[in-house]
Design brief:
This protein is of the alpha/beta class and 341 residues long. It has 2 domains: 170 residues, 3-Layer(aba) Sandwich (Rossmann fold), CATH 3.40.50.720; 161 residues, Dihydrodipicolinate Reductase, domain 2 (2-Layer Sandwich). It contains 12 helices and 12 strands. The mean pLDDT is 96. Bound molecules: NADP nicotinamide-adenine-dinucleotide phosphate (NAP).
Length: 341
């Protein structure tokens, strides 16, 4: 049995989901893969706690259900920031699922750097470290012999990154179109069905699918972050996140959807990448697409992508994901792929 000493950054929806899946599948992971994920460190916004014998999955889940904070754990380590947790615990895997901070990048960015400098493997659900420092973090993982996985950052359980990087080897992307944010797709659906944007946002928050600040979903920036990560992971795109013009769905009204419908179209928040004169041109904006097209039929809690490459022609795939379980499962998928490599 190989013990994987693991540190969890963030104990919110995604990482409590990770613990729940690990708990439910502990025996299978042990029997089929001879692995045991031992949680030796945890951090939330109140601080860090260390337990070299391993926290009990169930106790941590129940602890967070009661809305308790890490500083209330007996193994709480006062005075140590999340960014510094790697200096206080022996581990080999860091799972970073803290709330993304687009102003400073931290704690996600700094703790990811620190873990990679120690040669650990890092699995990200938080997109922000990649948006700030995609190239630098990959360089660190090569330099120090760790690894960096991030399929959970894009479309939850839909394996966009893994399919592109693993299954479309040697292919060159010609163009890409996607609905990358289920919350906005659900909001558009609800407006079309006579509901309000505010009620739809509340429902997305209740399900744990919306970003901590749902304006990142609505204004298109979450979609732009995902498009950026996809392009950096699979193409020669060398631009910055600020090179992507972004328009969200904040101004889409029921009348716009009605007018589109009369033409056999529907409105979707589309992430687009096309080559223009050998240069990548990226955008995020609400667009009319044919109602019976592939993306036109991605409704509500569905996300979808369609792309063309030189070797594999056209590929389209979509998922239905009304809660964050798929994202938590994607984190574990990445962790297992990493330790089994
Ligand atoms: N939910 C999804 O469907 C989904 C899908 C894909 C990607 N993601 C990404 O995954 C990450 C986590 O999402 P979530 O839904 O789990 O968010 P969440 O429920 O809001 O949880 C965020 C966690 O981050 C913790 N945190 C905040 N500041 C911290 C700090 N300085 N140090 C350590 N922890 C800190 C919070 O602590 P407290 O518990 O003390 O508040 C909380 O436990 C986000 O970056 C999000 O964008 C989420």
């Amino acid at each position: 049995m190989k013990q994987i000493k693991t540190v969890l950054i963030g104990l919110g929806t995604v990482n409590v989901g990770v613990l729940t899946i690990l708990k439910a599948n502990k025996e299978r992971i042990a029997i089929d893969y001879a692995l045991d994920f031992v949680i030796v460190g945890v951090a939330d916004s109140s601080g860090i706690a260390i337990n070299s014998n391993g926290f009990d999955y169930h106790e941590l889940i129940e602890f967070k259900k009661l809305k308790k904070r890490v500083l209330e754990l007996p193994s709480y380590l006062p005075g140590v920031s999340t960014e510094d947790i790697t200096n206080h615990v022996e581990a080999e895997l860091l799972i970073e699922s803290s709330a993304g901070n687009l102003k400073t990048g931290n704690p996600g960015l700094q703790v990811t750097r620190q873990a990679l400098r120690k040669g650990w493997s890092v699995v990200l659900a938080n997109k922000v470290p990649l948006v700030f420092a995609f190239d630098e973090l990959h360089q660190l993982s090569r330099e120090y012999g760790g690894s960096l996985s991030f399929s959970a950052t894009v479309c939850g359980g839909l394996p966009v990154i893994n399919v592109l990087q693993r299954d479309l080897k040697l292919a060159r992307l010609k163009n890409f179109k996607g609905i990358l944010n289920a919350t906005t797709n659900y909001i558009l659906n609800e407006i079309d069905n006579g509901g309000t944007r505010e009620d739809a946002i509340r429902e997305a928050q209740r399900l744990g699918a919306a970003e901590a600040d749902p304006s990142y979903d609505v204004n298109g920036h979450d979609t732009a972050n995902k498009l950026f990560i996809i392009m950096k992971a699979f193409t020669d795109f060398s631009g910055l996140i600020s090179d992507i013009p972004v328009t969200g769905i904040q101004h889409i009204e029921v009348n716009d959807i009605k007018i589109a419908k009369q033409k056999g179209m529907t409105i979707k928040l589309i992430a687009l990448a096309e080559k223009d004169n050998h240069q990548w041109k990226l955008s995020v904006k609400p667009m009319e697409v044919k109602k019976n097209s592939f993306l036109g039929t991605c409704n509500g809690w569905e996300m979808g992508i369609e792309l063309q490459t030189d070797l594999y022609e056209s590929i389209a795939m979509k998922n239905y994901e009304a809660d964050p379980v798929g994202t938590s499962a994607a984190v574990i998928r990445d962790a297992m792929l990493m330790v089994c490599r």
